[in-house]
Task: inverse folding
């Protein structure tokens, strides 16, 4: 299998005034292409910190993080920006859609930034919107969509550029149970049929039950790593 993510002895220390808080303490983790993995743990266990570091949204204090073999600690700001744009898809619990753009425009944004031709963008984005059940709502803005529909737009945006991995931080936190199950079904289908690699941070039992790999963090370290069939 192809290794997508590798964390080696990763520590992250936050300073709050004169106090240092160690969010991650020598974290080791390897994720391979095509995984559907949930990172779980109690509040303060370091799961969101880990995703932020993998997504190059923050810098580690020590250790190494490699994405597709590239050491993030050796990349400059411009290189990291390009990496986030081209190789990492993000799904946030707050959706983070641009309010003045339609569902289609939000979903095509990364492809537009990459300079993909408009006709190719349309074919690809409309295909993805069909996959997530939103083709008929492509012209609606976020304020005209339900929370679950907005999260589906966020998923479409995350996978549009064929990233190496989609990082989903508590993606079911702000939706009801029925919507959460539908969102998980959509992501499972994308994982199974398109080979999209997903890495979640979550405390939602529904996500943990459906993940094929469950990594448990406690106090910034791996306390359990369970792989499942399916």
Result:
């Amino acid at each position: 299998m192809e290794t997508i993510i590798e964390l080696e002895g990763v520590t992250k220390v936050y300073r709050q005034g004169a106090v240092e808080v160690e969010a991650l303490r020598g974290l080791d983790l390897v994720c391979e292409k095509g995984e559907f993995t949930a990172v779980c743990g109690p509040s303060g266990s370091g799961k969101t910190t880990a995703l932020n570091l993998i997504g190059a949204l923050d810098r580690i204090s020590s250790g190494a993080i490699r994405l597709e073999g590239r050491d993030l600690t050796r990349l400059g700001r411009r290189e990291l920006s390009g990496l986030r744009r081209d190789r990492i898809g993000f799904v946030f619990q707050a959706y983070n859609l641009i309010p003045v753009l339609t569902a289609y425009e939000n979903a095509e944004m990364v492809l537009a930034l990459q300079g993909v031709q408009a006709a190719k963008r349309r074919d690809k984005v409309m295909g993805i919107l069909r996959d997530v059940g939103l083709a008929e709502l492509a012209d609606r803005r976020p304020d005209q969509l339900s929370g679950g529909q907005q999260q589906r737009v966020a998923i479409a945006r995350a996978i549009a550029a064929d990233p190496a991995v989609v990082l989903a931080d508590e993606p079911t936190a702000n939706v009801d149970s029925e919507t959460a199950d539908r969102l998980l079904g959509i992501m499972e289908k994308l994982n199974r049929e398109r080979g999209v690699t997903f890495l979640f941070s979550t405390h939602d039992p529904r996500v943990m039950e459906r993940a094929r790999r469950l990594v448990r963090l406690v106090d910034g370290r791996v306390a359990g790593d369970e792989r499942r069939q399916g």
Observations:
- The helical segments are 47-54, 77-87, 103-113, 118-131, 147-159, 177-194, 205-210.
- Residues 44 and 219 are 7 Å apart (CA to CA).
- The chain has seven helices and ten strands.
- Strands lie at 3-16, 19-32, 36-40, 62-67, 70-71, 88-92, 165-169, 198-202, 213-218, 221-227.
